[in-house]
Amino acid sequence: MHRIVTAAANDAIALVDHVDRFDGRSAAHAARAMFEHLINLCDVISSTDNTPDRYLEHRHVTADQVSQHRWYLDLLDPAARKKEKDRLDKLARTTAAPLKAALAKWTTGFKRGWAKGTLKERADLHGLGDGYEGYRILSGVIHGSSGALAGIVRDIKGTPVHRVGPDLDLAATAYREGLVSFWSIADRLLVLTGGPEAEQLKGRTGNLLLGIQEVSKALRREDKNMWPTEPPPAGRVPLLAVYPSGRTRWFIVDTRTETMVVADPPAVEPDGVAAAIALARQTDPNADGRPVTFPFEANVPIRPRVGASWVSTSSVLMPPGHPARHDTPIGHKP
Q1: What is the rounded CA–CA span in Å between residue 293 and residue 305?
Q2: d(CA 56, CA 40)
Q3: Contact call for residues 110 and 58 (beta carbons, < 8 A)
Q4: How far apart are CA 43 and CA 50, in angstroms?
Q5: pLDDT tens digit string along 302-328?
Q6: CB–CB of 203/260 below 8 Å?
Q7: Alpha carbons 180 and 211: distance in angstroms, whole number
């Protein structure tokens, strides 16, 4: 029981910390684990099948798995590889006997998981079936479900926008689901021990739960401030280059990788080309051969020239000798 409570306490602290930093996805991991801690605790307290001994002896299964999982050894230098291999070999030796005894005692199905029954079945036995739905929602994050991306993918004026960063919608869900599991853990500890520590833990967790509305409101406010009102600019932008000689050339610029490629001119000249050329003629003619460039709307229909290579934008737009000029592409080729 002590091990379960220790794990739950650590995950509860992590949950609050993740929510405080708007890290909804990490908060979801911690909150999901806390429901499992709750069911594990209920099992070892009252189940005739999933006993404390069964729970504890499953640690030998994990140790055996760790000792056999060695793919990373080739990434280490020889000295570090030998030291790590010796450590894993020792772990395998010390685990072998207790693992064999545990598998004989609890049957081979024990290797797949410590407890008998599915999590849903075990939750229902303890009257916690309603909490399983919250667990399933949070499991979407663990399993990479598209439904778990609602807080970081949004349609803005017909354009799907993907946010790399905080998932505040998920943070609110994790906050309430994780804390209600931890409150239930504290409640069972209080019934079991009657101790003041358990009573204090239950009371403080209850106070955090009473803040659900305030926390959710604050997260929604911050979430609204983070989302743009307009979709971001297109990753690839048509670019008209007007050289000092008067020659023009079209490029496609990938703003994400800072690379560009020569493109065939559009079949129909878009509005603004003539004005761009006229403006370019008014610039300094001593530009070291570098063009004056004009970006156009992303919907201008141009394609990369057949056989053309993507190169660094600085290799075209910066004059020779400029410290920002690169002769080879940076990043990957789109």
Answers
A1: 18
A2: 11
A3: yes
A4: 6
A5: 888 898 888 888 777 766 666 655 555
A6: no
A7: 12
Residue 188, token pair as written in the block = 């069972």
Quote the CA–CA distance of 256 and 267 in Å, as a whole number: 26
- CA-nearest of 10, 128, 8, 117 to 54 is 117
- Cα separation, 48 vs 296, in Å, equals 72
- Strand 259-263 to 248-254 pairing: antiparallel
User: Cβ contacts of residue 51 below 8 Å, gap of 6+?
Assistant: 44
Q: What is the pTM of this model?
A: 0.74
Domain map (residue ranges) of the chain: 2-50+115-226, 236-317
Range with lowest mean pLDDT among 76-85, 122-131, 265-274 = 265-274
**Could you report the per-residue pLDDT of 39-80, keeping only the tens digit for each?**
999 999 999 999 999 999 999 999 999 999 999 999 999 999
Mean pLDDT of 202-226: 95
pLDDT of residue 259: 86
Q: How far apart are CA 280 and CA 199, in angstroms?
A: 76
Contact 238, 302 (CB under 8 A): yes
Angle between helices 24-46 and 2-20 (to 10 degrees): 160
List Cβ neighbours of 313 (8 Å cut-off, separation of 6 or more).
253, 258, 259, 260
> Is the predicted pLDDT of residue 281 greater than 80, yes or no?
no
Reduced to 3 states, what is the DSSP secondary structure of residue 187? helix
Cα(136)–Cα(309) distance, rounded to whole angstroms? 48
